[in-house]
Amino acid sequence: MPRVAVISPPFQSHAQPLSVLAGALARAGSDVTFACAPPFARLAEEAGVGFAPLTVSRNANTGVARSTRQGTREAERLEEFLGSTREGAVAALLTQCRHRGEDMLADPEEVLAEVRNLQEILAPDWFVVDQLSYPVTLALHCLGLPFATFCPGHPTYLPHGPEALFGVPYAWPGAVRPAARDLAELRRAALGNDLAFTERFAAVARAHAPRAPAPGRAFALASQQAVVFNYPRFPWLPEHRASGTRFLYGGHGVPPEEKGPGGEWEGVLGRLRSAAGRLVLIALGTFLSARDDVLELLIRGILSHCPDVAVVVAAGEGAPGLAEFAGPRVHVARVVPQRWLLSRVDAMVHHGGNNSFTECLASATPALILPFSSDQFSIAHDAERARLATCLDPATLTEAEAGAAVRDLLARVPEGLPRWSETVRRRGPQWTAERLLDAMKSSTPRR
Hints:
Blueprint: E1 3-7, H1 12-27, E2 31-36, H2 41-47, E3 50-53, H3 72-85, H4 89-104, H5 108-122, E4 126-130, H6 134-143, E5 147-151, H7 180-208, E6 226-229, E7 246-249, H8 263-275, E8 278-283, H9 285-288, H10 292-305, E9 309-314, E10 330-333, H11 338-342, E11 347-350, H12 354-363, E12 367-369, H13 376-385, E13 389-391, H14 399-411, H15 417-425, H16 429-441
Helix pairs in contact: 1-2, 1-16, 3-4, 4-7, 5-6, 10-14, 12-15
InterPro entries: Glycosyltransferase_28 (IPR050426), UDP_glucos_trans (IPR002213)
Protein name: Glycosyltransferase
Keywords: Transferase
């Protein structure tokens, strides 16, 4: 039985799909340990795998970013990022560029020591690492340990060619069209990050693994055996070409069985259904739930323009401020059981995060996508091109536009949704785990 260590950063949106994959690997015949910050031990228990405490980032998000305990500087960066999303797409992406060194490559030497210690304690045959955990990938490279890469976002988070820059969307949805001058500024900032990260990777490698091969371009450093994309294989996606590497498009990270949240939520849905014929979930992710101004706009727009629609709103720390809207057609909660709800609502409004996008696909739930940052613009583009969702710009959105978009979405199912939902459901965590095991078995040296 192969021993596998699955390493996740301390972010709910990353740890959740990685823990599901860990459970699938265990069901496929592996001895699996999920390594993450202590608050995420519950995910290992739910997945039926072992747990090892490991913190690989100063940042954290246990489900609602603003309420997660973290350092002063990390909290300051979060507020600066949220403020930038009010200014539009390029402003948000530029802020993320400025934060990247502190967010993604803090304490690489300490992480290397922690990964070495984990290897000594667990002696796994190989690791699975989140692609955005750059210090962990660098540590595994320096230590010469076999690993597979799990890409939690859009496949272009792993640059497919020299012209591709991490932090610059490979394509944009129709509603978001930055000016050429702004895009040029973004590319300059992203190129600066690319060069700075690559030099820092090289310096760490020279100091700690002088005999190992040079890590090369930092953002492109990934497993040479297997890369898992938690995403559908759309035919227009750029090709990743690397000799000997298996690229697995797993489609989604939804577990085979979703534990119900209990009778309270059944009661909530019953109450809302008795007041309206249709039900819409509004959830902007664990970070962007802090944009309570957008949540309020959406609630007002739907109440005004969709008289037969009720809404469930995931409002994070903004829930008390939105409590005035609670009533027969509105339920506001700090957090919601999103995957469970998706099989029970008629549509969802989300931010274009990878989990929300693929979970909507797996459940065949129509969506209105409002991309704010990161890879959300690329995901919104793909959703629009595949005719899976409606996409609008949250920076310019009005109540009337939001209400009309939801009304139209409920009037007719997006054309491509049935086909792509069926395609995605044929894959998933178990499909991925079995093929990942095959790929890694062929590269794991015998003890």
